[in-house]
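Below sits my pick:
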Amino acid sequence: MFKTYENIFQERADSYHAAMQMCPDARAAEFALVLEPLKLEPGQTLCDVPAGAGYLWRYVGDAQVRYVGVEPSDLFASLFPSHPGAISLRCAMDTLSLPDASLDHLISLAGLHHEPDLPAIFREMRRVLRPGGLAVVADVQQGSSTDRFLNGFVADYNPMGHEGVFLNGSTSAFLEGAGFRVLEDAVHRPQWQFATREEMGEFLRLLFGITKASAAATARAAEDILGLEDAHGAINLAWPLRRLVCQAV
């Protein structure tokens, strides 16, 4: 049976959160990738779908925006930051508990590959965005090295498996059919940064629920499949993602 985002993270959000607490800045370049097109201004409303435990908040809190994190998983929602500028909504991604045209911008980072009906989610995103508002969708591209790591190594060594349905040739058409104009559709190569290979292996093991392989074996697989770069004493792991920047029309 296909496991949805909510199914998966009802079971292992705590492990994912442990990884993000252990290395809170490891994915900084990935969060920068989805924020860069928006040019946030004070007073705007930004929605994060799905939000996990509100990890994006630490990168937008100083921008004086209203941050709305949509999260289907109870466990993730319970870990959401307590701050007056950060609002948590516990709802499904295809049924957002938000009024029409109530958002300036929306981000969806790396959660859609666990959802079975992207056209319905994109239609709902368009409904809650004001005309001219931007949506940034970033996720794994089908056939990429990131796909091979997740649907290959992670699938083999996570007891729940990993059955991601990644972005493909239909994605842009789905967005246009939902009422968006696609302004950019490109694969980017942000890097996750770690102090050591050992730290990287443990982070990946926790983040992806890998219990059937050691941290060392996980690090070796990541190096073989994704590629590493030693830079000024840091370890940079390639993490290619496809980014679509879309305007509500």
